[in-house]
């Protein structure tokens, strides 16, 4: 039949905006992205759209711009100057509202503070803050002066904070006396002090007041933000930075113990975010955009700060726990601020499913137009619940697949162009300009319905610039697995209609409540405990959090396995990494199942943790024989 060999979107869609954009991007990617870049204000136009020297892509080389100018200054010339930029709600119920002109004033003053502290273009500034307006303000202030921010999630431990500051060589750390979470004041300054003791390069620490709890201040090193602001100037001219100047470094977990410092450029990142948020969410200046992630993750960078502000939209930012003081806190916030676009994680949706629909019924959610999901695969049941109960069957579910490395959304329904027919659990199709595919072990396109690896075949403007200080790892982590393709680390399938279904990680990365953790990173923390000789960490499927951390540990010969020691070990991991890595279960074993080549048989450990049989042994990824796996399973089962 004519037309049947065409991709799905070309056969069935009555609309053609998405199709057109995809076609143009395929025919002439540089012209396509050049046109997208032209939608932003540049101080100087680029000489070349793309310089591609694999594995390095330099986008818009020769161009000059400033991310803070795009997010703030450009809105001051028209009516947007007096519209809301940030609706902020603290956990205790206090609120703050910043118009674009107020945001402009604060960003300038903070940029002046940084300059007076000696921060210059290219310097790294670490931000370890709770979810308060100062976090986006400091990010934008760094961007204003060309400093590179590195935000460290405020749930990370002193050691994790120190490691990241040492890796970036941060000169200044910005933190707070504390932040509120579930009614408690988290002692951020205390944690920061321990970290600064371990940090080699941090010269100055700026402290903002949030909880008013007493903290110790080291004279000459620590400064109250309020004091510094007293002498701050109100105008700092935005630096004209090159498109390839790094905007930020953000750490994420990989397959080794050391987190990767993912580096993003100013030009490519801003252009890409500007385009995809319109395509996927149809974001506009009158949108009230609420992304519930923490700014400490990439979702927060793009969806709380840079994309909504570049559009002149209003963003909602909430400091605390979703179910505090009651489980309808989020719905109360949606109603109060008239949220139009709501973006959250499958873990959160599953948690609210458990609480029941009655909590939603108490609130008027009719302002909602679009609902988004990110961070982990969304199961059809949660998708449907979200669609029926939060969106009242009026709002599309925009399931967005992307990564810290990709800078922004890659595979998602293009609701801002033409909405494709949705399938619960599928992120649908790649956005225009994104050449994504599913390939087999050899890098050949997988057959429809065949599980393979998700790859990106062409560079895109949001692509990471590299791993900070580690070009070799950049090459091996992303470019060595399949020649000429960016390896995402995810399993995926395409169905017969070309829809993408993301199946989770194919590597040793686990996702706990959508947060990315490397098993090697946790294993390193476990063996740093004095009682442990060896350890293996696996992710166990969990109905709410997607996955939870399970630890298998071999104790040193003279140590006795006790319940108290299990608790001690869990606490040790919390201190080493942060509460998000807290294990769900710790098993003490006398040996770990390994292949002859010494590789841990993770599927055996997973089966044990899940309390199921070891399962289908027809594809033995771990290169062990069927008998070996069975034997290892039986032996270990006796032990735990
Ligand atoms: O496994 C994929 C999963 O999250 C990973 C990226 O994690 P991170 O860098 O922390 O960024 C998360 C937020 C952008 C991916 O490799 N992931 C992200 N979004 C989805 C997803 N898995 C399935 N469906 C998604 N929509």
Name the features.
binds adenosine-5'-monophosphate-propyl ester; 640 residues; 7-stranded mixed beta sheet; Rossmann fold
The beta-strand count equals 30
Structural class: alpha/beta
Low-pLDDT segments: 1-6
> What is the mean predicted local confidence, pLDDT?
94
**CATH architectural arrangement of the domain at 64-321:** 3-Layer(aba) Sandwich
Principal-axis shape? globular
Q: Can you tell me the CATH superfamily of the domain at 64-321?
A: ANL, N-terminal domain
Biggest sheet architecture: 7 strands, mixed
CATH topology of the domain at 64-321: Rossmann fold
Question: In DSSP terms, counting alpha (H) and pi (I) runs of 4 or more, how many helices?
Answer: 20
Distance between the termini: 59 Å
Task: Name the CATH class of the domain at 64-321.
Answer: Alpha Beta
Instruction: Give every kind of bound small molecule, once each.
Output: adenosine-5'-monophosphate-propyl ester
């Amino acid at each position: 039949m004519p037309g049947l060999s065409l991709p799905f979107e070309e056969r069935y869609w009555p609309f053609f905006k998405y199709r057109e954009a995809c076609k143009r991007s395929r025919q002439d990617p540089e012209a396509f992205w050049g046109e997208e870049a032209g939608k932003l204000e540049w101080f100087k136009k680029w000489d070349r759209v793309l310089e591609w020297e694999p594995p390095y892509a330099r986008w818009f080389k020769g161009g000059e711009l400033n991310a803070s100018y795009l997010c703030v200054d450009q809105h001051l010339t028209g009516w947007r100057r007096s519209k809301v930029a940030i609706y902020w709600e603290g956990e205790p119920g206090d609120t703050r509202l910043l118009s674009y002109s107020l945001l402009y004033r604060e960003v300038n003053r903070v940029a002046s503070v940084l300059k007076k502290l000696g921060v210059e273009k290219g310097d790294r500034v670490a931000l370890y803050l709770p979810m308060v307006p100062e976090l986006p303000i400091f990010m934008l202030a760094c961007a204003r002066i060309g400093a590179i921010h590195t935000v460290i999630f405020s749930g990370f431990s002193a050691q994790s904070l120190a490691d990241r500051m040492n890796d970036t060589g941060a000169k200044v750390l910005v933190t707070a006396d504390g932040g509120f979470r579930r009614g408690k004041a988290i002692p951020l300054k205390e944690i920061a002090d321990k970290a600064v003791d371990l940090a080699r390069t941090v010269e100055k620490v700026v402290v903002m007041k949030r909880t008013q709890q007493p903290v110790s201040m080291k004279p000459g090193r620590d400064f109250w933000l309020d004091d510094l602001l007293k002498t701050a100037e109100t105008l700092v001219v935005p630096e004209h930075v090159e498109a390839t100047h790094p905007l930020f470094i953000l750490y994420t977990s990989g397959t080794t113990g050391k987190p990767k410092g993912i580096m993003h450029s100013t030009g490519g990142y801003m252009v890409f975010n500007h385009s995809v948020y319109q395509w996927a969410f149809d974001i506009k200046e009158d949108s009230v955009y609420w992304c519930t992630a923490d700014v400490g993750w990439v979702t927060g960078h793009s969806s709380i700060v840079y994309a909504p502000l570049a559009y002149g939209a209003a963003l909602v930012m909430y400091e605390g726990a979703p179910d505090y003081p009651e489980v309808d806190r989020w719905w109360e916030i949606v109603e109060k601020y008239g949220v139009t676009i709501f973006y959250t994680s499958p873990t959160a949706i599953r948690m609210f499913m458990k609480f029941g629909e009655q909590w939603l019924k108490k609130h008027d959610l009719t302002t909602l137009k679009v609902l988004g999901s990110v961070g982990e695969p969304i199961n059809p049941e949660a998708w449907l619940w979200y669609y029926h109960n939060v969106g009242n069957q009026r709002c599309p579910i925009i399931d967005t697949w992307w990564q810290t490395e990709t800078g922004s959304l890659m595979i998602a329904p293009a609701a801002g162009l033409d909405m494709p027919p949705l399938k619960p659990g599928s992120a649908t199709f790649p956005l225009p300009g994104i050449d994504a595919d599913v390939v087999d072990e050899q890098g050949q396109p997988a057959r429809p319905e065949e599980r393979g690896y998700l790859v990106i075949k062409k560079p895109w403007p949001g692509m990471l610039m590299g791993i900070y200080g580690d070009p070799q790892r950049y090459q091996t982590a992303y470019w060595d697995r399949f020649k000429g393709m960016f390896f995402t680390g995810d399993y995926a399938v395409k169905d017969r209609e070309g829809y993408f279904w993301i199946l989770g990680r194919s590597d040793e990365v686990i996702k706990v409540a959508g947060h990315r953790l490397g098993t090697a990173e946790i294993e390193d923390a476990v063996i740093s405990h004095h009682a442990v000789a060896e350890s293996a960490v696996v992710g166990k499927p969990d109905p709410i959090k997607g996955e939870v951390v399970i630890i298998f540990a071999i104790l040193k010969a003279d140590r006795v396995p006790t319940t108290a020691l299990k608790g001690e070990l869990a606490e040790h991991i919390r201190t080493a990494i942060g509460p998000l890595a807290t294990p769900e279960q710790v098993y003490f074993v006398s040996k770990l199942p390994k292949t002859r080549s010494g590789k841990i048989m993770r599927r055996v450990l997973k089966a044990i943790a899940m309390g199921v049989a070891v399962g289908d042994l027809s594809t033995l990824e771990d290169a062990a024989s069927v008998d070996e796996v069975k034997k290892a399973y039986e032996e270990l089962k006796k032990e735990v």
